[in-house]
């Protein structure tokens, strides 16, 4: 990878960050040690494999032209050992110690003068399972790119799928007189782009004017982070899907609504202030194409029916809005706001970052993302991967993000919260099991 300008959305994520508001993704993985292989050997492998990934040698530096722009540049004195850190737990506090440590590590911004990533190998004193926390700046990777980087660190290595794009025909001789057909095609493309930008912008404005903030999900940023996790059985979700209809993702969004409802009621908060809006990221990468650098995201905006007491009605409401979103496509509606980054000049990203950060909390209340993982068994130095919890960054002014991934027939929830605003984040994570049981019982009693 040579020196390249940051793509527009990458640049936006880079400028959105501030010292008290980091913009990195995370993934907390747990491995089962094998005979002769444990956290020390895993750290050695991660150092060797990370040093072989060209993308992880690149840092961001500013450029004079275009104004406000930045580029990826290979760090000359790259030392991979400064990015991979061993950490030992005491084992005195059980899982709470791991979650506390990961929360502290997630609140630390990455060093912007170096390649923006870190790995922590977290060992347990009893010699049991060890954990690996990977932090990648959002400018470096979106969810699919993060999965590709993670795969390159594991025993299975990077597996790029063949591109589905058709091979380009050789370029013909350059014409002195423009081809009218090409001019017409180019003009139509520009008009379509302009229409799309206007449509997305109008939808975003309408959505922000209709903002009804959820007290539980809004906060003044405290620069602190807290982590909680939960695991659900994928087969349980499929049983609900077969009975209640929709997709597994519809069921997961319904469960998140049920989790937030139970959590708010436990806190004694009113549910009549308006249902929270979730931004559900959608990748714009074509299926079967090579996962290249650069964020390619759109999204759907979904009202989570937290105020609805009936779990089946919550599922119906989620199905209705998701069907509407999918029919319109990821390039339409307010959830496609990330696509507007392509039409903002670099200086606009730099100067407009504070405004964009403020606008995010007017557009949505919580990020809910589902990160796809390879279906095969994964390992590190022969140590099987047993769980993987993705962690999504918080938007400024928001207290919780929810990320999910499916591996080995289980769905792993990774919750990241503002440490001061949500000291009870573990209760929100625990409510995943209650929300699942409630929805499963409703489907059994009143099948749709």
UniProtKB/TrEMBL annotation:
Q: Where is the O-acyltransferase WSD1-like N-terminal domain?
A: 6-251
Q: In which pathway does it act?
A: Glycerolipid metabolism; triacylglycerol biosynthesis; Lipid metabolism
Extent of the signal sequence:
none
State the InterPro entries in the record: Acyl_transf_WS/DGAT, O-acyltransferase_WSD1-like, O-acyltransferase_WSD1_C, O-acyltransferase_WSD1_N
Give the O-acyltransferase WSD1 C-terminal domain ranges.
294-439
From the UniProt record, list the reaction(s) this protein catalyses: an acyl-CoA + a 1,2-diacyl-sn-glycerol = a triacyl-sn-glycerol + CoA
Query: Source organism's superkingdom?
Result: Bacteria
Can the keyword Disulfide bond be found in this entry's annotation? Answer: no
Q: Which UniProt keywords apply?
A: Acyltransferase, Glycerol metabolism, Lipid biosynthesis, Lipid metabolism, Transferase
Q: What is its EC number?
A: 2.3.1.20
Q: Which family does it belong to?
A: Belongs to the long-chain O-acyltransferase family.
Q: Please report the name of this protein according to its UniProt entry.
A: Diacylglycerol O-acyltransferase
* UniProt source species: Streptomyces humicola
């Amino acid at each position: 990878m040579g020196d390249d300008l940051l793509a527009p959305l990458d640049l936006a994520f880079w400028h959105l960050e501030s010292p008290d508001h980091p913009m990195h993704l995370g993934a907390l993985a747990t491995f089962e040690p094998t005979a002769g292989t444990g956290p020390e050997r895993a750290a050695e492998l991660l150092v060797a494999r990370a040093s072989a990934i060209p993308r992880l040698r690149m840092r961001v530096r500013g450029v004079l032209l275009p104004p406000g722009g930045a580029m990826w540049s290979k760090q000359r004195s790259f030392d991979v050992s400064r990015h991979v850190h061993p950490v030992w737990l005491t084992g005195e506090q059980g899982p709470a110690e791991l979650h506390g440590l990961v929360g502290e590590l997630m609140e630390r911004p990455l060093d912007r003068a170096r390649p923006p990533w870190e790995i922590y190998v977290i060992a347990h004193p009893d010699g049991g399972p060890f954990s690996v926390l990977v932090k990648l700046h959002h400018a470096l990777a979106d969810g699919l790119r993060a999965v590709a980087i993670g795969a390159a660190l594991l025993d299975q290595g990077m597996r790029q799928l063949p591109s589905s794009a058709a091979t380009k025909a050789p370029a013909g001789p350059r014409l002195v007189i423009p081809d009218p057909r090409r001019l017409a095609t180019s003009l139509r493309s520009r008009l379509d782009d302009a229409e799309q930008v206007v449509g997305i912008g109008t939808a975003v404005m309408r959505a922000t004017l209709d903002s009804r903030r959820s007290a539980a999900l809004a906060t003044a940023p405290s620069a602190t982070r807290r982590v909680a996790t939960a695991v659900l059985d994928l087969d349980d979700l499929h049983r609900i899907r077969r009975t209640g209809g929709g997709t597994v993702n519809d069921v997961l969004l319904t469960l998140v609504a049920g989790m937030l409802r139970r959590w708010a009621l436990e806190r004694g908060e009113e549910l009549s202030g308006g249902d929270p809006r979730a931004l559900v990221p959608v990748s714009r990468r074509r299926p079967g194409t090579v996962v290249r650098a650069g964020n390619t995201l759109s999204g759907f905006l979904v009202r989570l029916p937290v105020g609805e007491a009936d779990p089946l009605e919550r599922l119906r409401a989620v199905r209705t809005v998701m069907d509407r979103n999918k029919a319109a496509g990821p390039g339409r509606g307010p959830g496609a706001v990330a696509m507007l980054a392509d039409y903002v000049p670099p200086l606009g990203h730099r100067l407009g970052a504070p405004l964009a950060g403020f606008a995010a909390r007017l557009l949505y209340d919580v990020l809910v993302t589902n990160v796809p993982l390879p279906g095969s068994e994964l390992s590190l130095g022969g140590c099987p991967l047993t769980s993987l919890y993705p962690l999504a960054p918080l938007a400024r002014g928001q207290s919780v993000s929810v990320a999910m991934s499916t591996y080995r027939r289980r769905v792993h929830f990774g919750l990241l919260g503002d440490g001061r605003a949500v000291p009870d984040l573990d209760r929100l994570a625990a409510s995943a099991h209650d929300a699942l049981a409630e929805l499963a019982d409703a489907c059994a009693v009143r099948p749709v």
